[in-house]
Hints:
Elements lengths: L2 H10 L2 H15 L12 E4 H19 L2 H10 L15 E9 L7 E8 L7 H13 L14 H13 L7 E5 L8 H11 L2 E4 L4 E3 L2 E6 L2 E5 L1 E4 L3 H6 L15 E3 L4 H4 L16 E3 L13 E5 L9 E2 L3 H5 L9 E5 L15 E9 L7 E10 L16 E8 L1
Parallel strand pairs: 1-17, 4-5, 4-9, 9-10
Antiparallel strand pairs: 2-3, 2-15, 6-7, 7-8, 11-14, 12-13, 12-14, 15-16, 16-17
Amino acid sequence: MIPDLRRQFNAAFTPGKYQHFLQRMEQRCRTAIQFRICETPCFFPASLMNQMAGTGEVLVRQLLDNENYRRASHAAVPAEFHTPGEERDPLFVSVDFGLVREAGSEPQPRLVELQAFPTLYAYQAALAQEYKEAYGLPDTLKIFFGDLDLEKYHRLLRRAILGKHDPENVVLLEIDPYDQKTLPDFLLTEEICGIQPVNIRAVVKEGSKLHYKKNGKSIPIHRIYNRVIFDELVRKKIQPPFDFREPLEVEWAGHPNWYFRISKFSIPYLRHESVPRTWFLDELKHIPGDRDNYLLKPLYSFAGGGIIFAPSEEQLAAIPARERHNYILQERLQFSPVIETPHGPTQAEVRIMYIWLPGEALRPVMGLVRMGRGKMMGVDHNRNLEWVGASAALISS
């Protein structure tokens, strides 16, 4: 995206430097990293990053300033996960954009999806920092938006996760956290915030209060940094020790309802030049004939699960009428390969990560990048390729 920086990086790259960078990342995370990290960061002009951050805010505001949408999204939360104590606005928001170049123009961001769920807020900052340090990149390249630096960002993250509570009474809640690929993020969150990853299976409920064990001692939980993916909870048929519907004496750092309320469910409601045409399957009167240009997506799936390219009549008909409201048909984006690499031009999907503290403005903090040359951008869809995978956005002014 910034030709001079890209040429310099590619010319100076060696496999040895890449291995050194990976070793530094694993040392920093204190564990093996189970997903592919790209050989390179992405260099983006501040103008493009600010455009994506601004567009993401416009889209979120378009939804949440619409009382009809608020009512519809509230009703869309599955009854078994409808959790009391929801705050007015989501604490964490991520908006994903693909970069599309049309008729020789500069690449423009197009919405892929949006989600009000905490992503890799601790890990991503560490990844970007290690790219800069391990490869000796210029200090002028920024990781964060606005006036944030690493120290200010960590303070902001602690405010979001801990609230006003002692770290001992705040937990990072996940299903089998030490078996998850996102363990590096959990351990870095523990380092920054002083909170412990806790398995949802191990939580103890006493009346309306929750506890966890630490060094054999029962510790009350006052606030939960929620990392539980409900799709996984259902798929693994896990019965938590508490019912999400109960009025528990606990705060949520990332309330569970927002996982459903700002999601693929939101896209058909958006009207913006960056948003591909999207319909709920049960509301679509006429299925478009040019199926190659469309995707069928389940509303509540994780990491690209269940997406069908160019769905056939048989695949569409196989979805029962009672389930069709849980699917969207979306115009397919043709990402442009905008990152020059030794293995050829590569596509980039950029996630703008926001933190929205109560009473404050929705704040973009940094960008996460996924690079790929396959049909989809997730690391699981680009196996056995090089110069693809998880990356970071470094911002040049």
